[in-house]
Structures are given as structure tokens and as C-alpha cells.
Write a sequence for this structure.
């Protein structure tokens, strides 16, 4: 067919031919992809030979390639360049995809073939693949009776519609909630570059003044710099009220319905609630174990936050502020950081220019640790003019894959930062990895350098950790490729990669003043590290607020409905012991995209669960020579390359030599 998804791309590493792809190609590609995939499944079912690994399991892994090509590109667009046309297609395609998946995983005859496959004589990865297919069919409802399967199809279709609607309403409301400031004096405290970027954002939106765009989490970066208290109040209010306002973009009703339907679906499958269903497929041994860990962390985190608040009140009183509020926290926290530790994070931005952060920081660390080299390929085109493409090679010059970077915010782009794959590595398919990192950095005026905040540099290293997990994949079957690991394990490699940001030889290589070229002074680095636990009370408490809110939504019993989501949220935080007026949760129900439209339902705990492994791994590197090729090769071979081809915790044990310990995490967060 003439559709660009109709055949394998002939570009390097099978990069999709974005120059040829238009939105009009997606619906025909999905239609043809569904038909092709179902024909391949029918061929498996029509096979009269006894079911075995090759004619059933491997055949299923090989099926659906056109659909995979179309879907990987389409969902890249829905996240990073969701125009009105793309959003309209998403509304149409979402339920079709849910129905298509149900037609496979609720096919009892197909499940019988899968269930009949013997693992005798198979290698470890193939044996695991058989087990994972059986598990996937059972969790999808293959064992339900006809009535149960009918209801399961209804639920999956409706959940798909609701998730899409939540995501699209949130994107629109986030754009509309950007704070417009008329007078530059109200932006006092921001750098000239920040003010210029706000003016450019307002101009691009056809407005007069200065526009402060919102990032996805509650706390907005510029709150730490704005001296105007009223501007801070308005900005935090705009962030907190997303999805709560009585307008067409209100998302609370969608959140409540999503949670209720997920609870019903879990009950169909024999679980008490959705959280129990979700954690049954994770590395955490049980929902009770998760609550036990969070319960140990919450009290010391809240105590630390309250102690921090006392210091902030003292600082605020010096400005005549007697009633410290949530919108004051970041501002006075930075003042205390400056006074107590002589660290001014906002003043570091001139040392974090995007090109140097990438080439001399992120890529440099990967070169020192893994021997990788990166060559920008301007001849290869991404899905948007701002997307850049690099070819990644191993130390011996062999090609590893492609890395795409999409760094600037725009109205058609979801908030936050993420990694996704366009092509998954697989020996079975003969493919290498093509992966993308997305950030949401405010674009400076034309001709001006892109200067990153300290947090944005951390994010760049974090997301590249995900990219390495994808690039280093060395598995046979695509289902196990790269980051296709349990949700509560996937953040582990990315969090480990953050450690290299302030590693002496790495930070010395990239943190240089964009005008003078002077390196970031060593005493500034020392002070940053000395202040590393400052603010952890706030950071841990706001994170736990979101995590425990997620679990509250997804521990609803079947048939239980939430009539007042705002009251439900307040009660859940109070019950969990993390209801601090000064520390709102990192995400509220109105804009908690991770759990209502992002795959983290009942799994937002994954970040801190993974951080246990991360902190223990950082300790291993420190004990074994730090940033060395030998250490990098071990981490790559034993962990990053394995994907989900073996039990992820076994991969960790193979790397670390023992079970993970909690103590390094407690020490890192100042909770010991």
C-alpha cells in the first residue's frame, strides 16, 4: 500500500519516514494494521499442528508489525504534538485499539493454544515469554465466561475514551491556565532571560504582557524567584485549580468514573480493588508491602517538612510576612538555602546552557561510562521541526541506535518529561532501538541561548537514563525490549543516571558560563552537595501526598463511587497523615495525568520503590571506582541490556550481588 506505514522504513535503524507522514495517514494505517494483525492471529489458530513455541508464541511476537509502526508514531504525536486533528483521531482510534486488544486477549481458542505450549527444552528467555503471555491473557480476562467478557469489553472501551478525554482536557486547561502578567514589575526576581521568554510566550499566544506557562506538577519553578507575593499566589492558584474549575475542561468527574470502572474491572478478575490488581504484576510483593514502606516514610517526611517550615517562617518574618502560605514555600526555601548553605540555584542557570548540558554532560557521561559516541544527523528528520536526531555508536564503532531529543515546550505538547521508543530492539525482528526524550523547556527568544534551571538539568540526565535503558536492550523478543519492565522498576535506571550530573569530571566538563566560559566554581558544587537534604522534607511529603492519593483512588471497592472528588481528595490526604496546607501534593486529582491518563494507576509509588534500588546502586558505584568503563559495562550487561527477559529483581541481584537495602535511600532523603 502507498501508506508510509505499509512497509518497513528504509531509513537508518528503521526511523519512521516523518517527511512522508501526514495525519491523514493514521486512520487508514490503523484500519489496515488491525486487519493484518487479525489475519495473522487467524493463521495461528488455523494451524492444525499441536501448539508449540514457534507456531504460537513466536508467531504472536512476529504478528502486528504494521499496527506497531503506526501506533508508535501516532502516540508520539498525541504526547508531543497533539494538534486538533491528532486529538480528533485519538478520540476515534482509542476505543478501536481497546477493542482490537480485547479481540486477541479475550479469544478463548487462542488462549487455549498459548496455555498448551510446553516450555520443555526452551531457553530462559523463551520460557519467560510463554509465562508472560499466559499471565497477560489471564489478566485480560481470557478465563471469564461470556457475560464477563462482554462486560470487560465495555469497560475497556469506556476507559479508553475517558483516558483520552482526561488527557486532552488537561492539555487545554493547562494552556488556558498559563498566568498572564501585564506589568514586568510583577516579575521582579526573574532573570532577564526568563522575562524575555515570558514576553515571547505572550506574543506567540497573541496576548500583550508576559505569559508564565505551567508545567505538569503543582510547584512551578519560577515560584522560587518571584519576589511579588501576589504573583506567586496567582501562579500557584492557577496550577492547583487545573481540572477543578467549573468549565468544559473540568476533569474531576472523569477521574471519579475512571477509578470506579477500574474497580469494577478488577472485581471481574477476582481482585478486591484496582490497586491489588495493578500491584499483582509488579516487583513489589504485595499492596501491603507498599503501604508498609510508605507508612515508614510518611511520619519522618512530615516531621522534616514541619521543621523546614519553621525556618521558612523565620525568613518570611524578616520580610514582614507573618502568615506563611504554600505559594511562599519555594521562595523562602531558596532564601534559606542561600543563607544557610550559600547556594543560589537560580544564579546557576548561566552555567547550564542546553548544548553543553547535552554534548559535554549527558553524552560525555555516557561516553566515559559506556564508550558511546553521538553524531548528530541533520539529514534525518523528526516528527516536529524542533526534534533533533543523533546516531549512537558503541566504542567499537558499531551502530547502537538513534536518539531523538525534543526539548522545548509548546501548546500541542503534554507537560512533564518522558522517554518513549519508536522502534524496539529485538533479535527476532532484527531491529535496533530508536528512542526519544521529551522535556518542556521554555524556548528563549530567537538568537538567545537556552539556559536550564538546576532541576531541568537533573531531568535531562534522568530521561537519558530511560533512553540508555532502551538503547542498550539486548533481547530476542520485542515484548521484553528496553523499558518494557514492571512499572515499579522502570524508574530505577533513569534515577541512577542522575548521579553523574554533579560527578566531578562530568560537571567540570559541561557546567561553564555561557558567556565567559568559566567553569562552575568548585565551592558552589560543594555547597550544593552539602545542601542536598535541604528541602527533602517538602519534596518527600509532596511526593507521598500524590502517591497516597493515587492509592486512595484505586483502593475503592467495586460499586463504590465518589460524588465529591475534591472532598475525597482532602479526606484521603488527611487519613494518610500528609495533609499539610503548606505542602500540597505533587499532583492533585484534576491534573494527575500519570494515574488517570498515563499508565501509572496505583503505581505512582514506583518512583520511591525504584529509588531504593537506585540509592543502593549509587552506593555500589561509589564503592567500586565510580565512573569507569568496567563499572559501566557491568551495569549495562547485567541490568540495562536485560529488559524484562529475566525477572528484574534477579537482574538487580546479579548486578549488586545481594538484595537491595533501604538504608541508602533513608540517608539520601535525610530520613535516617
Amino acid at each position: 500500500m502507498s501508506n508510509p506505514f505499509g512497509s518497513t522504513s528504509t531509513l537508518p535503524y528503521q526511523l519512521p519516514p516523518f517527511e512522508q507522514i501526514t495525519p491523514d495517514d493514521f486512520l487508514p494505517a490503523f484500519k489496515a494494521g488491525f486487519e493484518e494483525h487479525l489475519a495473522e492471529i487467524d493463521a495461528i489458530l488455523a494451524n492444525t499442528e499441536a501448539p508449540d513455541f514457534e507456531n504460537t508464541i513466536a508467531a504472536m511476537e512476529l504478528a502486528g508489525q504494521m499496527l506497531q509502526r503506526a501506533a508508535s508514531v501516532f502516540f508520539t504525536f498525541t504526547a508531543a504534538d497533539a494538534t486538533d486533528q491528532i486529538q480528533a483521531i485519538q478520540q476515534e482510534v482509542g476505543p478501536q485499539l481497546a477493542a482490537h486488544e480485547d479481540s486477541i486477549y479475550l479469544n478463548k481458542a487462542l488462549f487455549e493454544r498459548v496455555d498448551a505450549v510446553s516450555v520443555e527444552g526452551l531457553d530462559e528467555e523463551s520460557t519467560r515469554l510463554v509465562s508472560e503471555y499466559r499471565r497477560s491473557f489471564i489478566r485480560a480476562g481470557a478465563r471469564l465466561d461470556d457475560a464477563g467478557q462482554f462486560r470487560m469489553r465495555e469497560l475497556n472501551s469506556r476507559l479508553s475514551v475517558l483516558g483520552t478525554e482526561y488527557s486532552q482536557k488537561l492539555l487545554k486547561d493547562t494552556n488556558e491556565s498559563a498566568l498572564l502578567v501585564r506589568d514586568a514589575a510583577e516579575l521582579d526576581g526573574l532573570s532577564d532571560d526568563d522575562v524575555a521568554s515570558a514576553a515571547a510566550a505572550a506574543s506567540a499566544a497573541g496576548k500583550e504582557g508576559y505569559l508564565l506557562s505551567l508545567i505538569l506538577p503543582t510547584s512551578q519553578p519560577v515560584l522560587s524567584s518571584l519576589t511579588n507575593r501576589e504573583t506567586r499566589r496567582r501562579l500557584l492558584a492557577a496550577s492547583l485549580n487545573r481540572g477543578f474549575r467549573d468549565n468544559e475542561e473540568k476533569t474531576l468527574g472523569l477521574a471519579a468514573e475512571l477509578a470506579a470502572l477500574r474497580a469494577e474491572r478488577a472485581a471481574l478478575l477476582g481482585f478486591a480493588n484496582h490497586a491489588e490488581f495493578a500491584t499483582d504484576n509488579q516487583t513489589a510483593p504485595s499492596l501491603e508491602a507498599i503501604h508498609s514502606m510508605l507508612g515508614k516514610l510518611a511520619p519522618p517526611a512530615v516531621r522534616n517538612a514541619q521543621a523546614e517550615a519553621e525556618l521558612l517562617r523565620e525568613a518570611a518574618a524578616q520580610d514582614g510576612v507573618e502568615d506563611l502560605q504554600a505559594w511562599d514555600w519555594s521562595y523562602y526555601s531558596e532564601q534559606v538555602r542561600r543563607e544557610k548553605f550559600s547556594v543560589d540555584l537560580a544564579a546557576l542557570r548561566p552555567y547550564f546552557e542546553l548544548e553543553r548540558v547535552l554534548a559535554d554532560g549527558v553524552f560525555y557521561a555516557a561516553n566515559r561510562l559506556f564508550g558511546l559516541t553521538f553524531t548528530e544527523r541533520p539529514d534525518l528528520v523528526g516528527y516536529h521541526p524542533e526534534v533533533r536526531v543523533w546516531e549512537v555508536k558503541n566504542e567499537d564503532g558499531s551502530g547502537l541506535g538513534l536518539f531523538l531529543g525534543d526539548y522545548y515546550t509548546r501548546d500541542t505538547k503534554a507537560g512533564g518529561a518522558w522517554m518513549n521508543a519508536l522502534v524496539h530492539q529485538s533479535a527476532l525482528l532484527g531491529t535496533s532501538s530508536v528512542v526519544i526524550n521529551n522535556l518542556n523547556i521554555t524556548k528563549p527568544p530567537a538568537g538567545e541561548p537556552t539556559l536550564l534551571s538546576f532541576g531541568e538539568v537533573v531531568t535531562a540526565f534522568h530521561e537519558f537514563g530511560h533512553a540508555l535503558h532502551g538503547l542498550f536492550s539486548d533481547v530476542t523478543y520485542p515484548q521484553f525490549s528496553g523499558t518494557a519492565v514492571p512499572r515499579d522498576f522502570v524508574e530505577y535506571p533513569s534515577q541512577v543516571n542522575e548521579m553523574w550530573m554533579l560527578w566531578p569530571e562530568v560537571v567540570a566538563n559541561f557546567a561553564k558560563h555561557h558567556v565567559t566560559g568559566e567553569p562552575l566554581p568548585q565551592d558552589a558544587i560543594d555547597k550544593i552537595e552539602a545542601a542536598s537534604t535541604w528541602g527533602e522534607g517538602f519534596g518527600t511529603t509532596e511526593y507521598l501526598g500524590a502517591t497516597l492519593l493515587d492509592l486512595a483512588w484505586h483502593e475503592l471497592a467495586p460499586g463504590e463511587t465518589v460524588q465529591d472528588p475534591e472532598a475525597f481528595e482532602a479526606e484521603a490526604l488527611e487519613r494518610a497523615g500528609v495533609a499539610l496546607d503548606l505542602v500540597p501534593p505533587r499532583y492533585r486529582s484534576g491534573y494527575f495525568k500519570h494515574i488517570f491518563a498515563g499508565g501509572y494507576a496505583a503505581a505512582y509509588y514506583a518512583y520511591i520503590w525504584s529509588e531504593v534500588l537506585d540509592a543502593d546502586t549509587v552506593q555500589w558505584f561509589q564503592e567500586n571506582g565510580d565512573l569507569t568503563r568496567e563499572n559501566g559495562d557491568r551495569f549495562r550487561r547485567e541490568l540495562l541490556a536485560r529488559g524484562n527477559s529475566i525477572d528484574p529483581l534477579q537482574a538487580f541481584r546479579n548486578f549488586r550481588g545481594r538484595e537491595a537495602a533501604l538504608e541508602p535511600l533513608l540517608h539520601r532523603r535525610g530520613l535516617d
Summary: The longest strand covers residues 399-408. The chain has a mean pLDDT of 96. DSSP finds 25 helices and seven strands in the chain. The CA atoms of residues 33 and 68 lie 8 Å apart.
